[in-house]
Amino acid sequence: MQLRPFRISDLDTLCLIDQACFPPGISYSRTELGRFIAHRQSRTWVAEDGREIVGFLIANRHPMQPLAHIITIDVIEPWRRRGVGRALMDAAENWAREQRLKAVALETAEHNRPAQKFYAARGYVKHEKLEHYYTDGAAAWVMVKWLEEKSKVGGRMSKVDR
Ligand SMILES: CC(C)(COP(=O)(O)OP(=O)(O)OC[C@H]1O[C@@H](n2cnc3c(N)ncnc32)[C@H](O)[C@@H]1OP(=O)(O)O)[C@@H](O)C(=O)NCCC(=O)NCCS
Fold this sequence. Notes:
alpha+beta, Aminopeptidase, 30% helix, globular, binds coenzyme A
């Protein structure tokens, strides 16, 4: 398995993977995914084994704060617990560090316990609960990982958008 940058020909496959990973109301449409990927402040990593795409991650930079935002991370079911998610998050966090960003934030559905365990194992902490965050009415946890000691960052992090 290796990581590579996104290619436009990947979009249909990433859309199918997102729909397999998330229920309706939480998964993104093709248009939404394409818009996130195309944003000039975003980066997408694709995990590939041979010619099969086994996962991907989209991250972007917050426009006002020194913060990276994980828009989505998706690993296909047969490839889970094999280090693909870890490799994708390492790439995104390293990208954030290279830009001297202070923290990485994301939202995860309140009922998505496997994802919360995955993030907690990487040092993410629950920061704020957003009621009715998803279009299906589910709540989300904002989880945050500080890339340097919090005392050095100074001040309280303001509310993350989305
Ligand atoms: C969450 C997700 C990205 C994790 O990807 P993954 O490739 O399976 O994760 P890794 O194999 O790199 O796991 C790294 C560590 O995270 C933790 N972890 C991962 N999945 C876990 C689970 N289901 N339960 C508990 N801990 C878990 C473990 O500590 C694991 O290390 P270990 O396998 O040595 O014990 C993947 O399960 C997924 O795509 N789920 C569906 C989509 C989703 O929920 N995305 C997150 C939305 S916010």
